[in-house]
């Protein structure tokens, strides 16, 4: 099967995949063992861009926020596509091909691809065409760990993680294995979307991950002919959810055709039109995320230091 090509290639560089689910005792033993975090040794903050609801524009938001941090705020930024089953970051960042390897250390590390001053890693780099990833939980978690810990990220101010939708293995694995600095939730104003987003917020709170705030995507649409502004997905829902959880609305991004067309072309609006109003929306969100990280750093004890083993 074609999906084995990615697994075989990764195995050549020391990646090992569990063929079946492990028992409870074996899984507990694995969790108690120290984890290798070589590639993360110089990463200062790890931020999850997340939503328990699919189809709210989370990946597009993660990409544009990461590019804004790098190109508008001058930060050293990485971007990890954590959606193993549906990786879209390669298309959004206009990146292709398998990553090169750095074999100079005791363990081979993958070198992230870079565009728009953002270092990027995605499982999509290992897939060909439209081949699916027909993997169960243990293999998905293993692949995710290897992309996170087995990439030579170098010195980064922020590693942005584009999370898959849901509240399952990927989110729990990330929240338990590494010291997340915080999570920013993405939602449309629609109540149906906010129901799931609230569940996502509860999940991160249970894992003691700070909520940085909520991003309102597709907040409104402005007619290109008459200028009429219409709230297609409703209004006020994100503000109410933010108020309920004691966080701020990090910013609002309108529903605009340029975001869609630029994303499909692999030229995020922040990079293709950095002085435009749409880029300004994402830049504002990036600024608020950095400000929240600084506030949390001042009000909380220092986060656990990522060690090299």
From TrEMBL:
GO CC terms: mitochondrion
Keyword entries, A-Z: ATP-binding, Iron, Iron-sulfur, Metal-binding, Nucleotide-binding
Keyword check for Iron: yes
Keyword Nucleotide-binding: yes
A molecular function (GO) term: metal ion binding
Family in the record: Belongs to the Mrp/NBP35 ATP-binding proteins family.
Protein name: Iron-sulfur protein NUBPL
Domain of life assignment: Eukaryota
BP-aspect Gene Ontology terms: iron-sulfur cluster assembly; mitochondrial respiratory chain complex I assembly
InterPro entries (alphabetical): Mrp-like_CS (IPR000808), Mrp/NBP35_ATP-bd (IPR019591), NUBPL-like (IPR044304), P-loop_NTPase (IPR027417), YlxH/NBP35 (IPR033756)
Pfam families: ParA
